[in-house]
Protein: Islet cell autoantigen 1-like
Organism: Cyclopterus lumpus
Amino acid sequence: MLSDSSVMARMQKKFWKTKQVLIKATGKKEDEYVVASDADLDAKLEFFHSVQLTCTELLKVIEKYQHRITRLSQEENELGLFLRFQAEHDRTKAGNMMDATSKALCTSAKQRMALCPPLHRLHQEVETFRRRAIADTLLTVSYMEKARTEYRGALLWMKDVSQELDPDTYKQLEKFRKVQTQVRGTKSQFEKLKNDVCQKVDMLGASRCNMLSHSLCTYQTTLLQFWEKTAHAMSGIQEAFRGHVPYQFTTLKVPQVSEMLAFFSFSIILLCPILNGKCTCTCIELF
């Protein structure tokens, strides 16, 4: 008899737990007071999911950023080599400018690659943070959600029993006490895991701040050094060639171009050998 009663209790417990799962899955409205009691927990969970998402996005951004830096350095170096090649065939002042600029660009391309090690280190730390700290917190959150479902299922069970409770009936009163004991047990387990989740999420946020401040400090220092050296090199080129007279380009207006073409056509007619009053040259056909 005791075994039958125990089996029935387990079945009822699973029934109300399953009902709570369905309520959550279908988005049905739950008891507002029960939901309000978990407001602080839900705020912590929202922050945790934000940390989880942003860390994943940050890893993708770092990978793209490293790729862009490598490509930019390659293009910058190619431009420097092109200017150096042109400078070798130009002995004018412009050739000297191209040579100086090519050296600055090639140096800048090499110094830009110095940004990759701090970014690689940042990527490693964020990935480790995601695989360990976030994964550990996520495991605790899953345990807590399971305990919360059992607790709210027990509350539904107690609410159902209390609606049919007759204080004068011993069996119904005994059943209510058993369900009440079940609610207390699930609540105790849920409160413990709820406290663990809140503490871990707080520690997770603080750990992320420390990790990013340390890693980004190294990257920021390297970036500032790169820009200082590059700006100094470019400023040196500007000062060295200050006062240099730039090239003066002369453009032809449309009427001038048409007049030149007409004059050129007439010159060809005069220069072509004439036979029987006809020109044997076909170059006039171009016009």
User: Anything to note?
Assistant: The chain has a mean pLDDT of 77.
